[in-house]
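Review form for a predicted model. The reviewer records the input and the model, then writes brief findings.
Reviewer: anonymous (R2)
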Amino acid sequence: MADLSVDLLFDAAVRIQLLERSIVISFAADNSVRIKIPTIRRLAEFLGTPHYLVLRTFAMMEKEDLVIKAEREGIVTTKKGSKKMIRLMRDTYRKETEGILGTTVLEELFRKS
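Model under review:
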């Protein structure tokens, strides 16, 4: 079985958040935006793939500085990963994301990225 792509995992993460109507956004000490990523098991279940394949891709994402494991938070995006995720929300899932976050919050999120 082939590894999953980083882009596929980011897309799946956004779609899960939209389906569950739950997007957790926080601000780091450096004022960067962080977005909580669904659990590895949840992503694997959503994609219908073994969790070890998702783990491999997450290791690659950590190496590329797209996500980090934050104590008591789970897996969150870094500044670089947030830009990638926010771009997906803006370009592919804007209407759906706006339905959850509202126009004002969404525009502010776009502005900060």
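Findings: Helices lie at 6-20, 40-47, 51-63, 79-91, 94-101, 103-112.
Further findings: The radius of gyration is 13 Å.
Recommendation: see findings above.
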